[in-house]
Queue: 2 jobs
Job 1
Amino acid sequence: FRPDRLGGEESGPLYLRLQSLIRAGIAEGRLRTNDALPAERELATQLGVSRVTVRKALRGLVDEGVLRQRHGSGTYVGRPAERIRQPLSRLTSFTEDMTASGHVPGTRWLDRSAGPATAEEATLLGIAPGDAVTRLTRLRLVDGDPVAIERAIVPATAIPDPAKVGASLYDALAGAGMQPVRAVQRLAAVSLGESEARLLEAAPGSAAVAIERIAYLPDGSVVECTRSHYRGDACDFVAELSLSP
Ligand code: GLP
């Protein structure tokens, strides 16, 4: 795809003309699903427009689902991968859910640290303020695409050394003999703030699902409190319902 002009005969804002050019490329088969577009800088030079114009045009088409963008890698034709399914009626981990549905789960660490519990953390975990907690903040990926930001806090009695947590928190908990057996989970609709949107490669303000899971050990103590934001366009949450006996 090598556009060399913006359709000089057309009028209207440059970014809209660039969008038409890309749409026409797709309609005429010169651009196919998963094709990479030239870099922003290259497009701007070829067309003699500013990078701001190129960015605005691409952003609009990403919001419409015509294109998708991945940080550091570029802009591609087509929507993000199919939606993933998260069961709501079983106590499973992200890694298990994604693997069971044939996807490859991934994790990028944003924070992995230990420290004294704040008053809020202590209330959530049912411990005393100042008791040690482990904080695990991760970007969760599915087949390489970011779908969720998860902020977990765990009492240090369960995970004393954050560096020991690998790809799966639940594997680490099971390894420590601290596997949760029950959880309460809440879902709510939210919109993404700037920095979260950047991490999730979504438009600021776009829809997301906030999930809070508080998970318990057999003795009733809290072993995990996780607050997550899932991209609204990435997930279906599925529960099986039955009539009460
Ligand atoms: C889900 C839950 C989280 C839990 C996570 C564990 O995403 N919403 O509360 O912490 O699974 O997943 P993993 O074991 O892959 O880290």
Job 2
Amino acid sequence: NRTIYTAGRPPWYNLHGELKEPFVIGLCGGSASGKTTVANKIIEQLGVPWVCMLSLDSFYKVLNAEQHEAAKRNEYNFDHPDSFDHDLAATILKKLKEGKSVQIPIYDFKSHSRLEQKKNLYGANVIIFEGIMAFAYKDLRDLMDMKVFVDADPDVRLSRRLKRDITERERDLVGVLQQYNTYVKPAFDQYIAPTMIYADIVVPRGGENNVAIDLIVRHVRTQLEQRGFNFREKLRYAHQGQPLP
Ligand code: C5P
């Protein structure tokens, strides 16, 4: 069951030339619930080379001039399942699962638009797919091996969102509150919270919940081992061929 590598990059194949599929973790939760913190802690603790993160935010649809003006007035609904190009997201996630490299659109929250350039992502051992509507589409759900819902107190989410939107996304206090009350909060109740039923694990208190993160990491490591992932071998490879101490 030895593994050989192609051109020093994943995807990697076993001796029979069979592609070993990456493990896909779906991470869903309300805006500012701590999805990114949970994802980063999973990545850090997994200790596996080539973990990549894919965000549904990258697949926000391109707005026309009228929608763009509405967005600038905080009057465009970014919290609706139709706001995302989930077909493109599913196509890209499928390709990544097949070990192919892909080009991801880059989304700019300040200008509400896709940037000209794209980001290259290579095949990975573990893919984390995160987003507020990550569980809202069956085609995306079907590509996930494990689904985690990150939960957080609504007041905590609102205060984090206010801070983030003002400091990082060039928004003002009144506009953030208007958008939150008109779209973000109702969308959580209508579209996001109901998808909790698809979760294998619900993580209360988001990124602070180290016990839940530890359980997730243990499960993923077991699953990878069952798929033939050899942690010692891969870590040696990650250390550029140097034997592990
Ligand atoms: O990072 P987070 O999961 O919070 O990103 C999703 C949120 O980003 C949505 O709740 C949406 O209201 C917001 N958004 C925005 N402006 C955009 C696109 C999304 O405020 N141009």
